[in-house]
């Protein structure tokens, strides 16, 4: 179905939530936040209505779509049983709704020109969110222990995944991409967040694996990855030298385990205490284990970890901590909120898509390295890999922008997988032999040729 406003719907659906922000008071609703959410919802719903349809069987798309919407709609059951605060339930559920809507809008056989446009809008939205979140965090106040929680873009690792694909796999760099990547490292240093550097290193290793099939290619990719790691070190040292307060907090984080009475890192202890409490609550009965506690349900720190924080937090303050937002660990929180019945399907679907698309990319890279849709497919895989990477230190669906962006990423990854699979694997089975790669046949490659313009210059 043709629509003259398709470009407008793409911009509204992806770009508007890039200017979302973390409220200083999580329980307070801001009209400005609602203003950026409504256009995004309208944009993705419009894309769902006007998007093209697959003309062949798509079991993977059907499974992922069913898993996402079963997670969203099924959340009504534990909500009805637990009676959580309606406002808290809706706030926590909204990113998951946006994730499902983004997937439904993007998982379509869009023509190459539209796929290139969606990818460009995602790039601009990622960069805009990176800059806006950083500036907004600094405006809220400079003391590093207050600022560092507000300056991290919720899709920072997704942006890094896209850039690392260009650096390591495609081996194309520009002043703009280098500058953006270095700025993401500056944000990670200022935020004093170790998990970001660990996740970046894992994404670099994943990019090396995707782009290599021989030892020589692995060595070349390793050299490019070493350059990225060197940039991380230079930026970290330079930023710490310019701002001694940041260096002081980094030293505290590095030597926190040695300075504590328990000999363990306090940040790690609090994360484990949160996970333990969620796990204990959801496994307290067969009903909660099956259905979960519901989104927006309150949780706290487990008493089992109070002795490990002796001298750092009082018993009164420890038990006074109550949270209702999405937990820091995506995998455990899904079990906590939806149980085995309503919470497991979504993580399984994400991991399944990531595994199938990554292995398919390696296979098709050997068969048809000049396929024009291969690079957009690879970038979507790298951005999708940022979901488990983000879960190392947080919940990738804790924010609205990350929900809709990663939903679009998942949708495009599945759509491109289905298109390329039908082109290569199904065609190969029908012919039983492929003497000439498909991209050498103009009659078959012509419909996808226009996507070559999507490569960043």
Description:
α2 runs parallel beside α5 and α8 runs parallel beside α10 (194-210). The protein has one domain (6-250, 330-430, 437-454). It is globular. The protein is 69% helix and 0% strand. The chain is an all-alpha fold. It starts with 5 loop residues before the first helix and ends in a 12-residue tail after the last helix. It is built from 21 helices and no strands.
Number of strands: 0
Q: How many domains would you count in the coordinates? A: 1
Assign the structural class, choosing from mainly alpha, mainly beta, alpha/beta, alpha+beta, or little secondary structure.
mainly alpha
Q: Fraction of residues in helices?
A: 55-70%
- Encode the helix/strand succession as letters: HHHHHHHHHHHHHHHHHHHHH
Q: Any idea what the shape is?
A: globular
Task: Please state roughly what percent of the residues sit in beta strands, choosing from under 5%, 5-15%, 15-25%, 25-35%, 35-45% or over 45%.
Answer: under 5%
* N-end to C-end Cα span: 31 Å
Radius of gyration from the alpha-carbon trace, in angstroms: 23 Å
User: Spans of 5+ residues with little confidence (pLDDT < 50)?
Assistant: 436-457
Tally of DSSP helical segments: 21
Mean pLDDT metric: 83
Q: Biggest sheet, open or closed, and with what strands and sense?
A: none
């Amino acid at each position: 179905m043709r629509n003259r406003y398709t470009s407008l719907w793409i911009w509204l659906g992806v770009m508007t939530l890039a200017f979302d922000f973390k409220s200083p008071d999580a329980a307070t609703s801001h009209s400005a936040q609602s203003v950026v959410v409504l256009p995004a919802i309208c944009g993705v719903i419009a894309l769902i209505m006007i998007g093209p349809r697959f003309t062949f069987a798509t079991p993977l798309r059907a499974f992922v779509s069913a898993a996402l919407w079963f997670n969203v709609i099924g959340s009504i059951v534990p909500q009805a049983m637990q009676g959580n605060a309606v406002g808290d339930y809706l706030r926590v559920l909204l990113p998951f709704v946006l994730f499902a809507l983004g997937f439904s809008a993007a998982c379509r056989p869009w023509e190459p020109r539209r796929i290139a446009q969606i990818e460009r809008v995602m790039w601009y939205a990622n960069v805009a969110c990176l800059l806006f979140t950083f500036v907004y965090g600094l405006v809220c106040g400079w003391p590093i222990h207050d600022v560092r929680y507000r300056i991290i873009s919720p899709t920072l690792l997704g942006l890094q995944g896209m850039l690392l694909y260009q650096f390591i796999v495609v081996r194309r760099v520009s002043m703009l991409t280098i500058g953006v990547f270095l700025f993401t490292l500056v944000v990670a240093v200022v935020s004093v967040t170790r998990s970001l550097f660990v996740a970046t290193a894992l994404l670099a290793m994943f990019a090396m694996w995707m782009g290599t099939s021989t030892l020589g290619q692995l060595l070349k990719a390793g050299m490019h990855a070493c350059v990225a790691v060197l940039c991380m070190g230079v930026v970290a040292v330079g930023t710490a030298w310019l701002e001694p307060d940041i260096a002081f907090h980094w030293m505290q984080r590095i030597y926190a385990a040695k300075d504590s009475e328990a000999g363990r890192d306090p940040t790690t202890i609090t994360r484990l205490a949160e996970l333990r409490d969620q796990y204990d609550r959801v496994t307290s009965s067969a009903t909660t284990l099956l259905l979960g506690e519901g989104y927006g349900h309150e949780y706290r720190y487990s008493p089992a970890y109070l002795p490990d924080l002796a001298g750092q937090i009082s018993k009164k303050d420890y038990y006074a901590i109550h949270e209702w937002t999405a937990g820091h660990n995506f995998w455990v929180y899904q079990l906590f909120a939806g149980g085995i019945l309503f919470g497991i399907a979504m993580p399984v679907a994400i991991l399944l898509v990531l595994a199938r698309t990554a292995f398919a990319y390696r296979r098709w890279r050997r068969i048809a390295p000049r396929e024009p849709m291969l690079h957009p497919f690879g970038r979507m895989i790298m951005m999708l890999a940022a979901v488990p990477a983000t879960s190392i230190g947080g919940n990738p669906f804790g924010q609205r922008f990350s929900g809709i962006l990663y939903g679009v990423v998942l949708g495009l990854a599945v759509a491109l997988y289905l298109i390329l699979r039908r082109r290569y694997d199904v065609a190969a089975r029908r012919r039983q032999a492929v003497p000439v790669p498909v991209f050498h046949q103009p009659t078959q490659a012509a419909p996808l040729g226009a996507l070559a313009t999507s490569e960043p210059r």
